[in-house]
Design brief:
Number of strands: 4
Strand order of the largest sheet: 1-4-2-3
Strand content: 15-25%
CATH class: Alpha Beta
Number of helices: 3
Radius of gyration: 21 Å
Helix content: 25-40%
CATH architecture: 2-Layer Sandwich
Distance between the termini: 71 Å
Order of helices and strands: HEHEHEE
CATH topology: 60s Ribosomal Protein L30, Chain: A
Structural class: alpha+beta
Length: 152
């Protein structure tokens, strides 16, 4: 076979197309990177540090943090925990706040957190609560000062 400029151009185009298509086939619009339950702040910081590294590995993407309130917990706990996490990621880990999406996901049996990476804000998943708000039984007073939740 004679190698001509046309043959080289066709081969190069085929190689470029196969590389681009392979990359698209493996790319997910939304990917859950981690999840945990409970409000232990030391555990949360370790998970947030891992999430920060994940975000650094995908510099063009966005991070989504879902926090779900738990059954028999204090009112406003999910919102307070979200504020702790936002403060930690933005102020201590210097993650660009414009690359983060924080969502109060509703309620589950236990307080839980999910971390997602998305290519575009429009790709952000929807929350998946397991308990309807009317069925939640709170215990204790409403949390009004969130900083107490995120200290060691």
């Amino acid at each position: 076979m004679k190698v001509t400029p046309t043959v080289i151009a066709v081969c190069a185009a085929a190689l470029i197309c196969s590389t681009v298509l392979a990359g698209r086939a493996n790319y997910q619009d939304a990917r859950k990177t981690n999840e945990f339950t409970g409000v232990n702040w030391e555990n949360a910081m370790a998970n947030l540090d891992s999430f920060t590294i994940e975000m650094q590995n995908v510099p063009q993407g966005y991070g989504v943090v879902f926090v779900y309130g738990g059954q028999a917990r204090r009112p406003n706990e999910a919102d307070a925990f979200l504020k702790c996490m936002k403060d930690y990621l933005v102020m201590r880990r210097r993650v660009d706040v414009n690359r983060l999406i924080f969502v109060n996901g509703g309620y589950r049996d236990n307080v839980s957190v999910e971390f997602w990476l998305v290519r575009d804000r429009a790709d952000a998943p929807k929350p998946s609560p397991t308990i309807k708000p009317a069925a939640v039984k709170f215990k204790g007073r409403r949390i009004t000062k969130w900083r107490g939740l995120c200290s060691l």
